[in-house]
Design brief:
This protein is α/β, with parallel strands linked by helices and about 600 residues long. It is built from 18 helices and 27 strands. Helices cover about 35% and strands about 25% of the residues. An eight-stranded antiparallel β-sheet has the order 3-2-4-1-10-9-11-15, covered by helices on one side. It is globular and about 80 Å long. Bound molecules: fructose -6-phosphate. The site of fructose -6-phosphate (F6R) has 15 residues, from helix 9 and helix 16.
């Protein structure tokens, strides 16, 4: 959700913090602020709206200092006004705090602090942290001890950064249930909510765990638990190339990430396949052959786009590994007392690895005795660290709020898993596994074919940008693709779009069909091709306009649909990886035509770390 960056070193802190916040703006963007320790005072600047408002004001009137914290906000408590923007300060403006998460007991803490004379000026939960720090510091003046004391008094989730006007040599950080990393530099150190913020400066990272605090100076980092005991933490090396977190000439991160998909597929497959021996190697998930054979039920649990990848995964796993699969929204799974036992495998899927509902569902599943594996993008994220085995998708940093390349990589990971399970459960013969592996490896060039010919999709987008409602139809393994296509359109263009299994249309949604509602119908070659053609005819009979996604060479489709987006042929099970690409591009170009802020659509945040 919110983005945090902190710096301590020799350089201009505000420049480094603002550039880090720019790379984190996908996390939240309704207001922003910065606090720098400058000549014995906290210089604070905050602005409503996008970060550019803040950076513009700093450009005109810079703040000089080498220690500071900054924040981009996604409002939870209090409207996105300048008063509610972080950093928040105590009543003497000695201490400044940035916070991501929710302090659940802030109301009672606020009452107590008010009774002790502390004055509140914002509607946020975060402000209590600044006053708590001040309260604790009044006891013995030690900053780290004050932070431990303050954090022991709060309930809820937090990632925080703290600076003090008289201590330009110290930057404090702490976390519980909200992500925070420490970046290690040479004569400088950093804190951030996410890796891309500090990638240009360092790739040496310490992942802070729950209820740990970090004391940073420019030359040193020490980690403690809330009792003050020192903790030794490993330093991890991030492989992501900083260029991956730049737009590199594309108009938007989303477009760049759509175009990265062929390479992402190659990275996800990596060295995990052995075509000759018809094997898939996924040791990292930590399941023995015996355990895989013994699985009775699989639950796939995720949110949003990751959930739709799970819906495709159900088809793949049931078809190739003949195991019963339920797909659940994490926000539902965690509260519905799922029937989980030691023969249940739970697969959680998450790009960020920080989604609060998915994390809670994973904890619930573990509590109930299930083995839990994760399909995750961000290395060292909370979900990656808590699962029994993490299957990294290697999609690189995904900055566009609307997920594209991570979705693709999730599908590839699910396919690898399905082939592996099918082989181990002795349901797929070697020649079939070899064929699937070959087809999988052939996907990047097929997607490149689509990306080399986007003019037809752009042209369709130009003609359909003004409609207010869209219906998406798909069947079988491409029903989830229809749902993902509709989600992409609605989240970045704000057009109402819904998806149905095509065979379900006549049970209700057909009432909506008229000339004002374009219908995107996935009609690629498949076992149910004839059926979807019938569904398309039902639409046409009611004067609906059909935009079909069809297989290259299918000339007949033009007699049923007004417009066609062609995609190369592939195995039906792999078609979701191909079909989603024109749907991503359609959503993208419609949103651009409508003037939406594609990378940072309204009300959304990339990493949903609150429930
Ligand atoms: C949609 C989108 C969201 C995320 C969802 C889960 O484009 O990006 O629906 O898929 O918030 O996020 P992760 O995968 O980080 O758990």
């Amino acid at each position: 959700m919110c983005g945090i960056v902190g710096y301590i070193g020799k350089e201009d802190a505000s420049e480094i913090i603002i550039s880090g916040l720019q790379r984190l703006e996908y996390r939240g963007y309704d207001s922003a602020g910065i606090a720098i320790v400058s000549n014995g005072v906290i210089e604070r600047r905050r602005s409503e709206g996008k970060l550019i408002n803040l950076s513009g004001s700093l450009h005109v009137d810079p703040i000089i200092g080498h220690t500071g914290i900054g924040h981009t906000r996604w409002a939870t408590h209090g409207r996105p006004t300048e008063f509610n923007a972080h950093p928040h300060v105590d009543n003497t403006s000695s201490i400044a705090v940035v916070h991501n998460g929710i302090i659940e007991n802030y109301m009672s803490l606020k009452e107590d602090l008010k009774a002790d004379g502390y004055k509140f000026v914002s509607q946020t939960d975060t402000e209590v942290l600044a006053h708590l720090m001040a309260d604790e510091m009044s006891k013995d003046g030690d900053m780290a001890a004050a932070m431990r004391g303050a954090l022991k008094r709060v309930e809820g989730a937090y990632a925080i950064g703290v600076v003090h006007k008289d201590r330009p040599d110290v930057l404090l950080a702490g976390r519980k249930d909200s992500p925070l990393i420490i970046g290690l530099g040479d004569g400088e150190n950093f804190i951030a909510s996410d890796v891309p913020a500090i990638l240009p400066y360092t790739r040496s990272i310490i992942y802070l765990d729950d209820e740990e605090i970090a004391v940073l100076t420019k030359d040193n980092v020490e980690i403690f638990n809330l009792d003050g005991d020192r903790i030794e933490k490993p330093v991890e090396h991030i492989e992501w190339n900083p260029v991956l977190a730049e737009k590199s000439g594309y108009d938007h991160f989303m477009l760049k990430e759509i175009f990265e998909q062929p390479q992402v597929i190659r990275n996800t497959i990596g060295g995990r396949t052995d075509e000759e021996n018809a094997q898939i190697y996924l040791e990292e998930i930590g399941l023995t052959d015996g355990e895989i054979k013994n699985i009775e039920t699989i639950y796939i649990v995720a949110c949003g786009t990751a959930y739709y990848s799970g819906c495709v995964g159900k088809y793949l796993l049931e078809k190739l590994a003949r195991v019963h699969v339920d797909v659940d929204l994490a926000s539902e799974f965690r509260y519905r007392e799922p029937m989980v036992n030691e023969r249940t495998l739970v697969i959680v899927i998450s790009q960020s690895g920080e989604t609060a509902d998915t994390l809670a569902a994973l904890r619930e599943a573990k509590k109930r005795g299930a083995k839990v594996i994760g399909i995750v993008n961000v290395k060292g994220s909370s979900i990656a660290r808590e699962v029994d085995g993490a299957l990294y998708i290697h999609a690189g940093p995904e900055i566009g709020v609307a997920s594209t390349k991570a979705y693709m990589a999730m599908l590839i990971a699910l396919m690898l898993l399905s082939i592996q399970f099918g082989r181990i459960r002795e349901l797929i013969e070697a020649p079939e596994a070899r064929r699937l592996i070959r087809k999988l490896k052939g996907l990047p060039s097929k997607i490149e074919e689509i990306l080399d010919n986007i003019e037809a999709i752009k042209d369709i987008a130009d003609r359909y940008s003004e409609f207010r409602d869209f219906l998406y139809l798909g069947r079988g393994v491409n029903f989830p693709t229809a749902m993902e296509g509709a989600l992409k359109l609605k989240e970045i263009s704000y057009i109402h779009a819904e998806a149905y299994a095509a065979g379900e249309m006549k049970h209700g949604p057909i009432a909506l069909i008229d000339r004002r509602m374009p219908v995107v119908a996935i009609a690629t070659r498949s076992a149910t091709y004839e059926k979807i053609i019938s569904n398309i005819q039902e639409v046409i009979a009611r004067e609906g306009m059909v935009i079909a996604v069809a297989t290259t060479g299918d000339v007949n489709i033009t007699s049923y649909s007004k417009d066609v987006m062609y995609v190369p042929d592939t195995d039906e099970l792999l078609s979701p990886m191909i079909v989603v690409v024109p749907l991503q591009l359609l959503a993208y170009y419609v949103a651009v035509n409508r003037g939406s802020d594609v990378d940072q659509p309204r009300n959304l945040a990339k990493s949903v770390t609150v429930e």
